[in-house]
Amino acid sequence: MEIKRNSHYAVPILQSLGFYMSKLAALDELLQQYQQLAYHQDPKLKLRLEQAQAWLKNRIEHTHQELFAQPAHQLMAAYFMNRLYGGPEFDALAAQIARLLKYAHKAEKKIPDTAIQTGVKSIQLALLAMQLDEQVAAQLLQDFPADQTIDDEMMRVTLIKLDQQQARLQQLELLDELGHSLDKYLRSFILLTAFKMCKGVAHKYQFDLMYSFIGEGFAAIKPMKSTSKFLQQFIEKERLIISAVHSGHPQPFSTN
């Protein structure tokens, strides 16, 4: 099985930053892209995707352990790892998005614009991570036994073969944009108050997971002076690792 390369995935994600027709229209495009992921119909690919994402998250936690361990950063680190880089709840979240789009006209009156925009950017980032990681999982299945435990060398040669360098750098650019949005919008007392008022509506219509997805962003930034600075430190190290992978470093994930 062949997965199309990164240009097919990254460009639509970045283009859908603009809102058109409806403030929730971007969610419809993201949902369609999510539904096109191959792992939905392929149990072996799904398992390998889960394993690849587990390896990636372990690598990220190891690389950024000092940054993540700081008390003011712990909630953001958890939000980052559990929400922004995909995860087991994304299927359920996608189902809630599909239902929300059926009530788009009513939902737009209830949910603050800036909360929608920030939520969409978060979902874009999580989806892009899944798209790129699905490519990795498919390549791993093609080149290695399905039951072989993923290690650093397997991942190194796979990333080089896929040539995801530009797409991964775009992923970091999108993350940087999200950091600015979190600082700009989610620190607003008025927005936070309005968002809290939506909790009852979200529960009534069974959008609790989506509400939590956005709400955890509010909680994560509260102890921090600047989300952008936290993410800039993260992004700087990630760029170094991407560069090391594609410049032929023999142990790119161990670079500091």
TrEMBL record:
Domain (DUF8198) ranges: 37-252
Protein name: DUF8198 domain-containing protein
UniProt organism field: Acinetobacter rudis CIP 110305
